Amino acid sequence: MPNLLNPAPLAETVHALSQNHLSLGQHINQMCDRIDSVDAQVEALLPEENRRARLLDDADALNKRYGASYAPPTLYGALVGFKDIFHVDGYVTRAGSQVPPELFAGDEAECVKLLQKAGALIAGKTVTTEFAYFEPGPTRNPHNLAHTPGGSSSGSAAAVAAGLCTLAVGTQTIGSVIRPAAYCGVVGYKPTYDRIPSRGVVYFSRTVDHVGLFTQDVAGMKLAGSVLCQNWRADVGSGSALPTLAIPDGRYLHQTEPQALQLFEEAVQKTEQAGYPVKRLTALDDIEPLNELHRRLTFAEFAQEHRTMYAQHSDRYRPRTAEIIEIGKTVSDDEVAAGRQSCIAVREQLHHLMDQHAIDLWICPPAPGPAPEGIQATGSPLLNLPWTHTGMPAVTIPTNQMINGLPLGIQLIGRFGEDESLLAWTENVDALYRQ
Question: Disulfide check for 227: which of 44, 118, 130, 252 has CB 3.0–4.6 Å away?
Fold first, then answer.
């Protein structure tokens, strides 16, 4: 069996293509060879006939569009996988479901257009859990095929880890970007709410759905963020001062499994030894009611999105998806309103703590533990939930620590709207762990 993990850093690849150190045709053939040799085991990409020929045609069209007289665009030749809840022209959107896809068809997603305008090519659609919830697809973790890659952006995380594409796009409603990225040992980025346009997505919960990204490198994530994030500020850097980090101690952190918590503490110790100030603050101690409030808000909005389709095709929905629709129907308008108000209120509480204690970033585990065994479930998203609820930007990076051969890494969270600073600081922290 071939090695299921393969280097495919976005920034380095785009640079090589832009400088003609690597031809686009050669790159496409290498990536398609990789897909042909590996994806039968990982099952991250949805099957596509004539993928190689289509990509080579797309490359010819890209080169004709820009030609030798133009500077290559920002993501020239980057192969991108799109979670199969994004509408992409030329592809049927199935959302991991047996519901007739014409019922939720729509115009091409805004982020697809932005990436193509920046010179990216579509590697294909990636596997998603059913309607981006918990009913899994066939995708397996490239680190160990007996384990889940996480969800709901299962295929996007696994495809990047396996080197089947240099960039993948997913969504997060609770923990569907950060958790699978951590399980698969890649960089995952959930931006500030609505900084990456979500138009053209099959929505789960419009109040909290985030479009998110996967790469193998933070430098590549900054490139992709500059293309996709609205009003990107290219002049924001990390500066000379190290950021002050805060651990949200208390009931939130205690949701972590003991072995994972021990590895997290070792990672924190390494940052402190490198000179990063770290503080421990009691935060999110009302996490249990917040978890329930977020779940009921999202279930209510999911039930509303599927009201007509579910009435006609309830027999096509898998059990866990049908269950949350039935729960969502029981949520009152007052509960929904309270949930939406809470998104702002909890964010303000966290910002107040950051102001009060001069905190730049929160640091915490990205999941309660490493990827669980089996692919029937996708793991717990609870350590991602408050950051999704508040819309604050979050990144996970690997730390070269393993639990039974499986990665986990750390999660960093910045202030709402300050994604540029978060990614700049993350690049410095990431360099520390890659030493």
Answer: 118
- 395 has which bridge partners? 189, 412
| Rounded Cα gap, residues 90 and 22, in angstroms | 28
The residue with tokens 């193998």 is 216
Residue 329: its H or E element: helix 319-329
Question: Backbone phi, then psi, for 434, in 5-degree steps?
Answer: -90, 0
Amino acid at 191: P
Is 240 an annotated catalytic residue? no
In the set 97, 125, 152, 190, the catalytic residue is 152
pLDDT at residue 236, rounded to an integer = 87
The DSSP result for 90-143, as a single string, is: TS---TT--S-GGGG--SPPHHHHHHHHTT-EEEEEE---GGGSSS--S--BTT
The pLDDT value given to residue 2? 76
Burial code of 94-129, b = ≥16 C-beta within 10 A, e = fewer?
bbbbebeeeebeeebbbbbbbbbebbbbbbbbbbbb
Strand partners for 246:
279, 362
**All residues at 6 or more sequence positions from 83 whose CB lies less than 8 Å from its CB, including other chains:** 125, 126, 128, 132, 152, 153, 155, 156, 168, 169, 170, 171
The catalytically annotated residue of 83, 125, 190, 222 is: 83
Q: Is residue 171 within 8 Å of 152, Cβ to Cβ?
A: yes
Cα–Cα dist 245/240, whole Å: 15
pLDDT given at position 435: 79
Catalytic residue among 156, 176, 342, 380: 176
Angle at 405 (CA atoms; ends 401, 408), nearest 5 degrees: 45
Q: What is the DSSP string of 187-216?
A: EEEE-STTSS--TTB--S-TTT-EEEEEES
Model pLDDT, residue 69: 63
Q: How many CB atoms lie within 10 A of CB 310?
A: 21
Low-confidence ranges of the chain (pLDDT < 50): none
Other CB atoms within 10 Å distance of the CB of residue 134: 22
Angle between helices 24-42 and 51-66 (to 10 degrees): 150
The b/e string for 179-190 (b: 16+ C-beta within 10 A; e otherwise) is bbbbbbbbbbbb
Q: Are 393 and 419 in contact (CB under 8 A)?
A: yes
State residue 354's pLDDT score: 98
Question: For this structure, is 113 an active site residue?
Answer: no
* Partners of residue 122 on adjacent β-strands: 80
421 is catalytic: no
pLDDT, residue 142, reads: 98
- Cα(45)–Cα(65) distance, rounded to whole angstroms? 27
pLDDT of residue 410: 98
At residue 105, the pLDDT reads: 96
